[in-house]
Amino acid sequence: MPQKGTREASHAGSWYKGNPTVLSQELDEFLADVPNSINDSSLPIPGAKVIIAPHAGYSYSGPCAAWAYKCLDLTKAKRIFILGPSHTYYLHGCALTKFAKYATPFGDLKVDEAVTQELRATGKFADIKLDGDVDEHSLEMHLPYIYKRITQTFSSESEYPTIVPILVGDNNGPEEKQFGNILALYLKDPDNAFVISSDFCHWGTRFSYTAYAPGGKIQNIQSLSRRQAKPTDPAIHESIKLLDEAAMDAIKTGKHDEFVLNLAHTKNTVCGRHPIGVMMAALEVVAKDDADAGKYRFKFVQYQRSSLVEDISDSSVSYGSAYAII
Predict the structure, then answer these.
(1) At residue 22, does pLDDT exceed 90?
(2) 6-205+269-325 CATH fold
(3) Structure pTM?
(4) Which of 173, 183, 77, 168 is nearest to 122 (CA)?
(5) Could you give the C-alpha distances from 130 to 2, 120, 126, 155, 198, in angstroms and in order?
């Protein structure tokens, strides 16, 4: 099935600047605020071909995302896989776009038709609903950053990588491993890079998640109600940080099962938990063939929150940026 049409940049002008000049300046400022070296390496980090980055409006998560994108090594990239969760409709399994291009204020990014059809031929992937594709922000919010970074990396449009957008649905652990096995083949290919789209804890009654760790003890997690007095040991925002750190620590182990177990305990509302899970499973498959402990595991380089919650009536969304070397 040939790819057709161009997906519009539906969130341009609202979630991020629609004017290409203004948007370019903003992204340059975000990237300039990131140090020129991280973990004793100059940026981009050689071999850092997989990143986790947030997908909220740029005024909230743009500065955090810059840390992941400045680490991302695209020097040999011929295509970039983008894995994000579905916010617009319920999805089980994974789904592929039917569009041929994705628009950005800077220009269009071409979908890799050959690889998309290879994945479709496995019989394991559905098609993204067209209206869901247009409305979905988890993939789109990464496109301006991707376009910015490829223009910084390549001298001509003929060299620009294609993209492979994939929506990752509500899958259990074994199902994530099945998709991880499929993507592991592409992870081994040095021509490929991967962007994993995820915010972290969505905390507050509006998210139906008010988990709290009394005394800073995750094992004693409980849910707060409006009738309770404002807790101070620790402050709510510190408890949220502990919940996110526990999830990030599980991710850093490189063991997919550890991440699944962490979420089963805390119920942390990591909206990209399934894309992260699929990529962790893929990395684990590839890691079996390489004894280098410094590779195939995510390293977090930035953590931010939209606000510091102190009262049950408040809310916040957390953002994290990470990279993995392959």
Answers:
(1) yes
(2) Protocatechuate 4,5-dioxygenase; Chain B (3.40.830)
(3) 0.97
(4) 183
(5) 15, 16, 12, 33, 22
